[in-house]
Design a protein that fits this description.
With about 230 residues, this protein is mainly beta. The chain has a single domain, classed as Porin, CATH 2.40.160.20. About 15% of the residues lie in helices and about 65% in strands. The protein is elongated. The termini are far apart.
């Protein structure tokens, strides 16, 4: 009996020693960190649609070799409002995209100097624009939610010249280039600030004084626009 008791006591002591050692080991371990999934960086890939608006200034002139007058240069300016549709493709930090937009414009300018303004313009050369569209490539470098970019492509719009015989209009195609920066507010919404230079070339109209297609009216635009895009 004494041997059994001694054996039982020894077994109990050994069990308690083992348990105490395991408890001390657990207490010495650092607390387990809660699992936190890695934060996903902002993804610019996908289609988007949006609106934009802004203001611009440009340059125009009138010249008519048929009546022996030189070019009369003057400034144009006005507001613009429209919408855009595009697609971005992100590869690493590089973002490649294409965007097309169509904008209403209220840009105009005039000068009352002599020469062609007196003969063809009835005392004032006046150039107007009522719309402008572009189709452009965009190349940017993403800093997570910030996307600075450069852009360039085709521009198209109208050039209007007001003469004593009425207002003549011509649709022209030219080029555009610029730069901007876009910021991802959420994964679906982004805002942008953009500058574009557009050159529609020269429109040719029937001169009021000569009665021939000799009146030349070029126009360029420098536009500052803000925009809001919905992305999916």
């Amino acid at each position: 009996m004494n041997r059994s008791v001694t054996f039982a006591l020894a077994a109990a002591v050994a069990f308690m020693a083992t348990a105490l050692a395991q408890a001390a080991d657990i207490a010495a371990r650092p607390p387990a960190q809660a699992y936190q999934p890695a934060m996903k960086s902002f993804d610019w890939t996908g289609f988007y649609i949006g609106i934009n608006g802004g203001y611009g200034g440009g340059r125009s002139s009138w010249s008519d070799a048929a009546v022996g007058t030189d070019s009369n240069r003057f400034s144009t300016s006005g507001g613009t409002l429209g919408g855009q549709l595009g697609y971005n493709w992100q590869v690493g930090s590089a973002v490649l995209g294409v965007e097309t937009d169509m904008n209403w414009m209220n840009a105009k300018g005039s000068t009352g100097s002599g020469g062609v303004c007196a003969t063809d313009g009835g005392g004032s050369c006046q150039t107007q624009q009522s719309w402008l569209g572009t189709t452009r490539a965009r190349i940017g470098y993403a800093f997570d939610r910030w996307l600075p970019y450069i852009t360039g492509g085709v521009a198209y719009g109208d050039i209007r010249a007001t003469q004593p015989t009425g207002t003549s209009s011509s649709t022209k195609t030219g080029w555009t280039a610029g730069a901007g920066v876009e910021y991802g507010i959420t994964q679906n919404w982004s805002a942008k600030l953009e500058y574009l230079h557009a050159d529609l070339g020269t429109a040719t109209f029937m001169g009021a004084a000569s009665g021939t297609s000799s009146l030349k009216v070029p126009i360029t635009d420098d536009l500052a626009r803000v925009g809001l895009n919905y992305r999916w």
